[in-house]
Task: structure prediction
Amino acid sequence: MNWQLYDTWLVITGALCAMACALPGAQLVLRRRSMMGEAITHAVLPGVVIAFLITSIRDPLVMLLGAVVIGVLTTVLVDFVQRSGRTEIGASMGIVFTTLFALGLVLIRAFADDVVIDPHVVIYGSIELSYLDQTSLFGWSVPRGAVVNGGALLINGLVFLVFHKELKLTAFDESLAAAMGFRPRLVQGILMAMTAATAVAAFETVGSLLVVAMFIVPGATAWMMTDRYGPMLVWTLVLAAATALLGHVAALVVPGWFGFEGMSTAGSMAVMSGVLFAAAWAFSPRHGLIARAVGRRQLSLRIAKEDVLGLLYRHEEGARSGDRPLTAGDLREALSVSRSIAVAALRGVRSAGQVTIESNRLQLTEQGRVAARSLVRTHRLWERFLWERLGLRPDHIHGTADRLEHFTSPAMIEELSAHDEGEDPHGRPIPPAED
Amino acid sequence: MTQKDPEQSEHVNEASGLGPEHSSGSPLSIHDLTVAYDRRPVLWDVDLDVPAGKLITIVGPNGAGKSTLLKAALGLIPSTSGRIRVFGKPMKQQRSEVAYVPQRESVDWQFPVSALDVVMMGRYGAVGWCRPVGRRHREQALAALDRVGLGDMAARQISQLSGGQQQRVFLARALAQDAQLYLMDEPLASVDAATEQAIIEVLRTLRTEGRTVVVVHHDLQTVEDYFDHVILLNMRVVASGPVSEVFTAEALRQTYGGQLTILSEASERLARSNDVGRS
Result:
């Protein structure tokens, strides 16, 4: 990999662009209006072109204004179509933004083709060329794309700081916000204007197709990583920046592996944001696939260990002299769980000092017997409760008690044992609580 | 039918001199309120004066406009006509005196905030536009959570709370608003018996403090136990007054019309309680 100043600037430009988009995008994701991002980013195109046609100057501020006007108009139109027709929100967005986007393309073709606006650039972006277009900032020569996107990020960041409370409240509870006088529609308008303006700033960098990925994916990924609003916004920015860096590195490295040359950095950034989302889906600490699988396995392991103790206790209880002790094989059969869980459970109770194994014979230790007694006690208390209080038949209650015994808090055991002790519905003694 | 901004229509009415006939001190005074969705009236010619310092309930069949009445009073939805006064002044000037508890289903509980964050939102109105929330507000929010018995749940993400706990978080948020008038939309819907008692205790404390609480309620069985004043609503106000005077079998029949099962249960209970009263 041959890294040059060009690559550094490309990553900086891409990161600024992705971060600028990701902030309003995170809000859209939280409001369950992600596709509104798609609608607006496409719909602003005719706004840009019309603004240019009216003023016939390519002043970025004029174009920005055109985009913001039509971006806000898009939300109004989508609302209008949804309410006046029998269309759901997705359909009305589809109607509005495709119409406007197509109108924009037609207008470019008719009046501005290749002269000032290149439709190819509008759709695909030209981040690779951004380094060539330099401008001066405080006496330094920097790529114009970095300045434009950096400006967008700065403004969005300020809006998010100043309206932190308002954005959070209106996204969560519009009616309370309105009742407090916080004008949710005004706040939503600010958000949509921000989305439109950011989209225009990002067009030349990543194009109107991929910009949607910059808006939505970092926020959606961040939501998997955290359960708090502020940290989610920080994650969003970090993930957006990482998308740009990893995306460009991948664009440089991956083609070499497969023996072809060159890959679009913007496309690679979008792919990378998808990869990061998949990674979060798998590895996120709380909602991730792996975290949940581990949690499930730990739960079944705990239940299996408790069942081992219960089985040994019951065996001990019913054993006459001369009965052979249970073997590991007996237990594995009785547990009806996968072999790996059963093996892990046996290893677990043994290393906890609750069970000894001598020449394949299992024996409860005193410590294990105490734990097992309390478990069997819970089981039989439940059986009694289900039989006496709920009137279930004694032959129907074992399975239920078997599940409940693993999830009974000490407080609940106390509640259950408030009724006098004695025997369970099958005539077996309920072991006394620890003395 | 033209839809007017509620605030605008107030000025119109004021100019035409309709003001004085309604008591200016009532926590919530509604005059000639009509609300329509798609030209179908939901509330029609509603006049109400809510008494101060009482627990007030709004009951009525599904679709009677109970939630709409609260929302229209708050100016959350446009009304066709009507004048709303809160302690004698337009709602716009009295926002800090009014706390609102929307229905639990109206928000997304997956939203990345903790119980404490939600309760702190109750202080936002007092903080004002664009100003940050301070430590003082945080402590007020914690105190409100404690009052509903959820002090140890402050850091929980809100989707990890039970339905009853979520409802109490909403109540704590309203407490944090520290208002004089509380408007609550079904705060007792699908909560367990213990939560219901806890919520009622908080409402009674609010009454003791001289605050006014208006609750949309669905359970006719408990109206007499919990509330002082009842508003029977079915598009229009069928009856409004002290529970002991207004909550009669006849008024319920007028309110609920054909919904006989609820009705017969309630009137049976009424008959029983009257017997007890006599003996």
The longest helix of chain B spans residues 260-278.
